[in-house]
Structures are given as C-alpha cells and as structure tokens.
Amino acid sequence: MSEVILSGIQKAFGDNLIVKGVDLQIRSGEFLVMLGPSGCGKTTLLRLIAGLEQIDEGELRINGRRMNEVPPRDRDVAMVFQSYALYPHMTVRENMAFGLTLRKMDKAEIARRVQEAAQLLELSDLLDRKPKQLSGGQRQRVAMGRAIVRQPSIFLFDEPLSNLDTALRVQMRGELARLHRRLKATMIYVTHDQVEAMTLATRVAVFNGGLLQQCGEPLELYHRPANRFVGGFLGSPSMNFVAASRTGATLSGQGFSLPAPADLDAEVRGDLLLGLRPQDLRIAPDGVFRGEVEAVERLGFDGFAFIRTEAGSIAARFDKGVDVKVGDRVAVAPVGDAVHVFTADGTKALRHPSLPSAPTTVEMAS
Ligand SMILES: Nc1ncnc2c1ncn2[C@@H]1O[C@H](COP(=O)(O)OP(=O)(O)O)[C@@H](O)[C@H]1O
Ligand SMILES: [Mg+2]
Question: Are residues 240 and 221 in the same domain?
C-alpha cells in the first residue's frame, strides 16, 4: 500500500515545458487513471514518478518520503510499458524472472514468484515459449507478469492495452480490474481512452497541455465537468457547446432562446457558453434549436442526429422508434434543466444540471 503525492511537478524538454506544475494526491490502493489526448504529457508524468526522467521543479513523495533523488529501483514501483518491451531471445519464464535475477534474488524465491504470477495471469502453460510464439494479449500478460513478480506497492501502466484489438481490450480490461482487486496495490494507469478510464478508475485525473484539468470519480467528472475541456473530452458523441448570453431570465444566442435554469446565480450575466450533452436533448416540435439534419447514426437501440443550426452543429440522441432522415428539418430541446453553463471562454463551469435521481430498485420475486 502506498500513497503518491505530486506537488508542483514541472518538466521541460529543451525549451518546451511539457508538465506545467501538477498537484495530485494518489491514495493508497486506488486505481487512478490519468486521461488526456495524445501529447498532453501523460507518459512523461508517469516516467517522472518511475524515476526514468528527472523532475525539474516540485516534489514527488511516496509514503511521505521525498523521491526526487531516489533511483528508480529503490522507489518500489514497477512500470508496464505501451510497447511490451519483452526480450525476444528469452522465454516467458526468463522474461518474467529477469528483473529479479538482476537483483540477485534467491533462485527458489524467483521460481515461486514467477509461478504465482503465471497462475494469476493464466500463463502457466506458456512459460517455456518465446515472445514470438505468443499472441498480442499473451505478450501483454507477460509484460504485466514481469511487474507483478517484483511485488511493488505501486504499479504504473502506460496505455498497456492500446496495441490490442477491441475484443481483447475489453477482456483485458476485466482482467486488470480483477488484478487490482486481488493485489490491492496502488495503480496509476495512463490512457487516452475515455472508456478505459470510466470503467477501470476509482478516480480519473484529466490532463490537457501538461496541466491537470480535474480529478474525481468517473461519474462526477461526467456530470460535473469543471470546464469545457473536461465536458467535451468525456462522453460520446461529444458535449455540444453553444455561445449564449443571459438577459434576465433568458439565455439566448444565434437563432434560439431558452429559460435560464432557476438555480443559475443571479450574478451570472452577459456572455456565456452552454454545454448540452446529446443524450440530454430530445427532438420535439417546439424545440429550442432548429435546423436541418446533416447526418444520422443509428446504433440499434437508439441513435444520434447531427443537426446544422444557426448556433452551430448540434448532436442529439433519438429513440429507435423516431423517424429521422438526413435533410429533415427538426427542432431539439434539452430535457428538464439539462444545461451546463460555462464562462464564455470555457475555463470554468458555473452551473450543472441537477443529477438524475437514482434508479428505483426493483424487488425481484424469487
Ligand atoms: N525525451 C523527450 N525529448 C523531447 N521531447 C519529448 C520527450 N519525451 C516527450 N517529449 C514531448 O513531450 C510531449 C508530451 O509527450 P508524452 O508525455 O509522451 O505525451 P502523452 O503520453 O500524453 O502522449 C510531446 O510533445 C513529446 O514530443
Ligand atoms: Mg504516452
């Protein structure tokens, strides 16, 4: 069990500041996912925690101890890389044992740990194979096995599933969650995939441009994004954004107006940005936003219509029974008070919709 605290962490490569002052507390035993677009500095931050890069400014603490000057091998962390980085000439057993052999660990203890990890990862029958005789998923498991045998208190994962096909990714996601429950170790997991983040994380830390945008439980981020970036990054299709201004009890913009939510602070006036999730919009004859349907995605159970309105392109969910075609003129309206309000520049959320009430529990007759 280990707590990791990042305080004001900065890292530059040459003149490029890549990690721009990150404060984050990772709790002991949690599955923290660092989520963000490609190039936002996730791998760099993970390598700073592992000790593979030097921290320029700020402090890294693990279990209260300053780690900035501590070499990687003494940090009690193990990293699983995006490229599995297996040694091609070694067997699975040798690959898994390699780090321990380097540390001159007792041979019997190494054998015991490799056996145990292989069992956990269902690799027991493959221990004498070479990497090229394994599937992608099996190689990924060996890479994880190599971290597990070290029995670190902190695991660092850098997009470990990104090289696998969709079906295998879903399966490995389940296995990772199981592994976390079994090992109860602190896991820090980097990905650009919001589905991985939403399904695996106890908390998600969203990054953009080397800065932490928000950290919280997955649904908290989805329902209460702190700014436009987080609102737009989580959810599919992406949240719709429209420019609006408030006068009295009305929010209006290009070609639309709607009542301001009753709980919107009276101080909030002038130019604003509205955020509308496609799932919170319905096609309705007296809708707020009007326009022509440009594209339709039917997913079976429901679908999404993409509508060109004066306020910009808007995606809206529709139920399977609804007939929508490209070229139709339609109107859409938010359900209830489902409007997020941000400052005009999108840097700060000012208001979120009230949360949907918890689903009613249905008593099943036995
Ligand atoms: N060793 C390095 N030298 C110079 N630039 C680097 C180095 N490592 C990463 N970068 C740059 O830092 C930025 C962030 O990279 P990275 O941390 O890999 O992002 P992510 O993992 O979020 O995609 C990129 O622009 C990348 O080119
Ligand atoms: Mg990366």
Answer: no
